[in-house]
Design brief:
The chain is mainly α and 429 residues long. The protein has 19 helices and 6 strands. 65% of the residues lie in helices and 5% in strands. Strands 1-2 form a two-stranded antiparallel ribbon. The protein has a two-stranded parallel ribbon with strand order 3-4. Helix 2 crosses helix 6 and helix 4 crosses helix 5.
Amino acid sequence: MIDRYSLEKMKSIWSEENKFRKWLEVELAACEAWKQLGKIPESSLKKIKKDAKFSVKRITEIEKTVDHDVIAFLTNVAEHVGPDSRFIHLGMTSSDVVDTSLSLLMRESAQLIISDIKDLIRALKGKARQYKHTPMIGRSHGIHAEPTTFGLKMALYYEEMKRNLDRMAKAMDVISVGKFSGAVGTYSNIEPKVEELACKKLGIKRAEVSNQVIQRDRHAEYITSIAIVAATLEKIATEIRNLQRTEIQEAEEPFKQGQKGSSAMPHKRNPITCERIAGLARVLRANSMVALENVALWHERDITHSSTERIIVPDSSILIDYMLQTLTRVIDNLVVYPENMRKNIDKTQGLIFSQRLLLMLVGKGLTREDAYRIVQGNAMKTRGRRSLKDEVLADPIAAKHLNKREIESAFDINYYLRHVDDIFKRIGI
């Protein structure tokens, strides 16, 4: 089942309460750094740390007048701290607080996303092992190609999700930076040592150079990494949707007790969960485009990025958390029909073994063009009435080059699957 606690945890990260909590954490880290440099008295720091509080309701009230969220926040904190509040926000600009806090929030979110990815990797690995040797037809252009296994399909997704794990880990590292460098990043009224000490306190790196903001290529990497993860989820969900089609019916998403598929047709078992995942992936791709647009700002900064980030960063984080947990539930409870996979393999009456015949004829000394002509000619004659094997066995031209035993051996499915174990060993399953 979906971990409701985890979903609530992600939503709580992006709550107004937690946002201001992070703002206060950043301000207190700067105060502690200033104290170490002798700028803030010990007694004042103790007073600040003891009394610094905020109320979301009160901040909202103040902001209605000042029309500036950081000033409203600082005003509310000052109401609790009193005269020693003069040491809060010393030499800082709003972006020092907002951007550093946003980094902390994205880092928290990335940790949950990484945990979700690991859960999906586990689920895919389990299914890959379970169906390692379960044969099914491989398809290209939607048309039957050659045999593969359902386990190999799951192994492919498993390996791709491992790459997504690496992407998110790198994105978390890239975004885990802070900035305490003042109005345009020149440390005009704040010491570089404050930035170093405060970032260390917060457990993040400092931006080696910045202007008024932390550079948005970092945020774009975070959001685009999420979009790539979503693209993989859509890829898996789309395959399940296709395999669930009535005329294929090789696998389907779970259909729980009491669930109904259609208001009009009681028989329906629709792949609505996978369709939901595919749809939500579109939102995350759109968000990634916005993140890329946010990289280019005027001069040392403008705030065209600010309004959009209030939407795309929380929404992308919450959405991918939900999508990962949802698809993990689908994979854990996936319904698989090996018998239908076998029926579909047999549906073309041996046409899928055409390449093996082609190569056997080439091995007998025929040119590829001549071998292709023989095999294709017999394949085109079947038209669902006879098997390819029967056509080739009855073909006097083919008989000049291949005996009956050789022709029959060309239709051995195990030949096509003989390297599956090698592939699994290569990826450590």
